[in-house]
Amino acid sequence: MSVILGFSIDAEAFTLGRVLGGSPEMRLELERSVPTGEMAVPFVWATGDDHDAFERRVRDHPAVKELVVLDRLGQSGLYRIAWEEEPTDLTATIAAANAVVLDAYGDRRWVFRLRFPDHAMLSRFHDTVVEHGISLNVDRAYTLTEPTGHGHRFGLTQDQRDALVLALRRGYFETPSETALDELADTLGISRQAVSQRIRRGTKAVLSEVLLSSVGDRD
Predict the structure, then answer these.
(1) Mean of the pLDDT values across residues 21-48?
(2) Ordered strands of the 3-10 beta sheet
(3) N-term to C-term CA, the chain
(4) Cα–Cα distance between 107 and 96 in angstroms, integer?
(5) Dihedral angle sign, alpha carbons of residues 172, 173, 177, 181
(6) What percent of the chain is helix, strand and coil (3-state, nearest 5)?
(7) Which whole-number Å values give the CA distances from 59 to 20, 83, 88, 141, in the listed order?
(8) pLDDT digits over 87-138, tens only?
């Protein structure tokens, strides 16, 4: 049975965090990724209005061999980082434990949510983290059959959750909105109508769970 682990970590505690740190003007998140058995090349979404400074900062880091701009959508850009030497810290440990990166975002401090195929792989990840002295602040570990208590499920389908998380990260709910439905649709590879429906239905599911959590409220 797969296990979800949520934790946070200081940017200075791992190579990718140090490379991407120091960009308070940009919102940064890793592209959702699946394990490959090796350290995956990082794909990073950066959202903001100072991409030139962000790109210079990353390219000038001694650990970075190359930064490639893969796509631009409004104020967001998708980047691929190639290393001079593959890091052997957190990101390598995630790949070695066969974990899927569900969420990863931050600046000076990063928040991760990983899915492991089973408890054995989670234990392997934990042991390696301890062995390498990587300091994590664990939020919670749970199976998908457990209620999370932290709002990760709320009766959402995975498609609805992906759409809501993307919309939130890109500033769709800000006033004025910082991104358009067309941009979200392009990122998810679906139609404008489909992403609108996922956001609407997902929002309804979350609000129903939060605001109508008791029998009396639902009546």
Answers:
(1) 74
(2) 64-73, 76-83, 43-47, 27-30, 100-106, 109-116, 3-10, 137-143
(3) 36
(4) 24
(5) positive
(6) 35, 25, 35
(7) 10, 10, 20, 35
(8) 889 988 998 888 888 888 888 889 998 989 888 999 999 999 999 899 999 8
pTM: 0.66
**Cα(208)–Cα(40) distance, integer angstroms:** 38
Both structure tokens of 49 = 């209005």
Dump pLDDT digits (tens) for 48-84: 888 999 999 999 999 999 999 998 887 889 999 999 9
Q: Where are the beta strands (DSSP E) in the chain?
A: 3-10, 27-30, 43-47, 64-73, 76-83, 100-106, 109-116, 137-143
| Nearest-angstrom CA–CA distance, 14 and 36 | 20
Average model confidence (pLDDT) for the chain? Answer: 83
**Mean pLDDT in residue range 138-145:** 76
Give the residue from 107, 104, 84, 71 showing the smallest Cα distance to 5. 104
The H or E element containing residue 207 is helix 192-211
Closest CA to 141 of 149, 130, 133, 132: 149
Block residue for tokens 């809501």:
164
For residue 98, give the DSSP letter.
T
pLDDT of residue 157: 78
Separation CA 133–CA 155 (nearest Å):
37
Here the tokens at position 205 are 């599911």
